[in-house]
Amino acid sequence: MNDLLSSPFLRELKVSVADHRFSQTYPFNIPAIRNLQSLKFHPKVTYIVGENGMGKSTLLEAIAIASGFNPEGGTRNFQFATRETHSILHEHIRLVRGGAKPRDGFFFRAESYYNVASYIDILDEEQNPYNPPLKNSYGGKSLHEQSHGESFFSAFLNRFGGYGLYILDEPEAALSPIRQMSMLARIHELVKRNSQLIISTHSPILMAYPDSVIYQLNDHGIETVTLEETDHYVIMKQFMNHKESMLSELFYDE
Length: 254
Ligand SMILES: Nc1ncnc2c1ncn2[C@@H]1O[C@H](COP(=O)(O)OP(=O)(O)O)[C@@H](O)[C@H]1O
Ligand SMILES: [Mg+2]
Description:
- Helices cover 32% and strands 19% of the residues.
- It is built from 8 helices and 9 strands.
- Helix 6 (177-192) links the parallel strand 6 and strand 7 (196-200).
- Helix 7 (231-241) crosses helix 8 (243-250).
- The longest helix is centred in the last third of the chain and has 16 residues, at 177-192.
- 37% of the residues are buried.
- Residues 26, 30, 50, 52-58, 85 line the site of adenosine-5'-diphosphate.
């Protein structure tokens, strides 16, 4: 068990140097991607943060595909495609793996969770009626019959079992602050069960897992920051502490 802890599933990402690096088209037109050479994963939690459009989803998707996940999300067994819009970045990265293989895994992306929910419904319709339905692992109800927040949260609580690699793209999208804190507690449980998580998030609450590294993508590249140094934390704090002056600045018209 302890050697699992000291040898994470994913240690590092390396970008192969190729002419593509100098291409002006997606995904190499994104500064953080163009300037990326390697990225070391934390054995427990790695956060990818930054402004909208900085390349977080592009990076997470490439890591997920290179790890064997479906580009649209789900477990490694999910093989469906409703669209083919993923970037070619996964072809240009190499993942340095640790000693152990994950026994569980999930790629969650808020953007296409709807398609994952549909796929689970289809699998359950086709399933042998004597086997328990898949939806039992996701809270017992079709994910379409639960709210977005509820359905993701039930997957996170019920479906993720530990010893896993979990790649989550903006999992807070529909979660209340209390649920985001519950999610932190769940992250801690999963970490204690030898899991590794890679999480892209805008939520300063969700970024607060102490045993972690935070990479912030910006217009120039990728920097390592503390929670208190992230733009998200600074701006949120400023807003909470100086709401009136920030509002008057926002609503100021000449
Ligand atoms: N399939 C695509 N084709 C072309 N450009 C894309 C595609 N997906 C995203 N982009 C562009 O790449 C940039 C980074 O997108 P994304 O990785 O989704 O950013 P983030 O997740 O940080 O908000 C954005 O400017 C976006 O418009
Ligand atoms: Mg995104």
